[in-house]
């Protein structure tokens, strides 16, 4: 425990001290936590090691935290105004990505079709934790941020039933999870219902005469809602990822002031949970994991990142005319794989299905490469998009005092 605390403290301090540099360069806090985790883990110093269950819990916590926070960037008025692009990305792009990843897993790596389909379901969703690197940048056009935010906020919860169902069909029996389609759909529906109902109940309580929060404690109100919601979802086996995003959206819709007061606190909590999860994930990586993937796994991971996400998303957005070509390209590229995929891969690993270890190895390597690629490209993409207006035309900057090209 001492070694873990020291490693996390060092990583957090380095992330803080390099944060200004990270805002203007390919370096990111994610890379810092990954590097420290690899350094203290089995690959180098061997002073910190972790197990798959710990990584799953850390990944779920980080994912839940960022989903609740990101949901508050998408109140109902925003979703009503710009629902078409996320609907296309979720309804067409995500299924096409699932098919593309499964084809690569079978064709490049040689996995059986049942295992390949599981890999497709695990890697189909994008990760809101890393997508927030663009969502949180004001220089990125609002429609791009809105699309990435809603897509990454909903697709993790939507992918979970598919992962469990396909793992069950492949011979697995995930612990604490049902693989019956009816039960999975019910858990999804209950998650949505709880995400709507709990903030409504809390909002009603706050309107009772005499019930009021002091200014300094108001940011903790949404935190309390998030914690309570997580507990209720766990108690009734509801889909907590869908519930988190929906609840965040409802909180922002009911009380923009409460949402605004929570924003800074939420971002800090999300950064902390992201750091914990990345450190835990990095200390899980060892020679065995990379051996499971092999050279074919590395090729597979590269193809998933550069082809299996971009092409389906570009196809799905063809009917949507409001996005410029540059915005489409940015959205297509920026589909990071992260904590949802890690958590789902651990569920598959514990399910006992055939080729479970091979599935986990492929997912781990893909997530690692995705974090490296997407965390180091967010600044460049934001600057690239900021150079063009809503029509896709270059923005003319005013000439500086030393500019003599008149």
From TrEMBL:
Chief location: membrane
Gene Ontology terms: cellular component: plasma membrane
Subcellular location: Cell membrane
TM segment ranges: 32-48, 87-109, 115-135, 147-171, 183-208, 220-247, 289-308, 329-352, 358-375
Keywords, in A-Z order: Antiport, Cell membrane, Ion transport, Membrane, Transmembrane, Transmembrane helix, Transport
A molecular function (GO) term: antiporter activity
PANTHER family: CNH1P, NA(+)/H(+) ANTIPORTER 1
Name of the protein this chain belongs to: Cation:proton antiporter
Organism of derivation: Nocardioides islandensis
């Amino acid at each position: 425990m001492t070694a873990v605390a020291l490693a996390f403290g060092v990583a957090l301090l380095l992330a803080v001290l390099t944060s200004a540099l990270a805002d203007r360069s390919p370096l990111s806090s994610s890379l810092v936590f990954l590097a420290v985790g690899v350094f203290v883990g089995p690959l180098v110093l061997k002073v910190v090691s972790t197990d798959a269950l710990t990584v799953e819990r850390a990944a779920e916590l980080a994912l839940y935290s960022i989903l609740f926070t990101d949901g508050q960037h998408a109140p109902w008025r925003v979703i009503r105004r710009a629902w078409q692009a996320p609907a296309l990305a979720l309804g067409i792009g995500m299924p096409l990505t699932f098919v593309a990843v499964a084809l690569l897993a079978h064709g490049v790596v040689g996995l059986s079709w049942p295992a390949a389909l599981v890999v497709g379901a695990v890697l189909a969703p994008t990760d809101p934790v890393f997508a927030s690197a663009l969502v949180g940048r004001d220089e990125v056009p609002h429609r791009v941020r809105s699309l990435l935010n809603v897509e990454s906020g909903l697709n993790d919860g939507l992918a979970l039933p598919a992962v469990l169902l396909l793992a069950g069909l492949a011979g697995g029996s995930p612990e604490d999870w049902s693989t019956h389609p009816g039960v999975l759909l019910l858990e999804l529906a209950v998650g949505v219902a709880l995400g709507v109902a709990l903030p409504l109940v809390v909002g009603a309580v706050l309107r009772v005469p005499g019930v009021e929060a002091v200014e300094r404690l108001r940011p903790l109100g949404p935190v309390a809602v998030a914690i309570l919601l997580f507990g209720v979802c766990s108690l009734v086996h509801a889909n907590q990822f869908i519930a988190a995003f929906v609840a965040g959206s409802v909180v922002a819709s009911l009380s923009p002031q409460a949402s605004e007061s929570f924003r800074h606190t939420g971002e800090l909590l999300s950064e902390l949970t992201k750091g914990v999860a990345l450190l835990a994930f990095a200390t899980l990586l060892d020679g065995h994991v990379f051996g499971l993937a092999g050279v074919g796994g590395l090729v597979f991971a590269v193809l998933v990142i550069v082809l299996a996400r971009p092409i389906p998303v570009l196809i799905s957005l063809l009917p949507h005319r409001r996005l410029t070509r540059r915005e489409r390209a940015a959205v297509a590229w920026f589909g990071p794989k992260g904590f949802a995929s890690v958590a789902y891969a651990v569920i598959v690993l514990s399910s006992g299905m055939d080729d479970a270890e091979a599935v986990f190895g492929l997912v781990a390597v893909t997530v690692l490469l995705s974090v490296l690629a997407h965390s180091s490209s967010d600044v460049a993409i934001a600057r690239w998009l900021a150079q063009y207006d809503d029509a896709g035309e270059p923005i003319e900057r005013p000439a500086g005092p030393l500019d003599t090209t008149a």
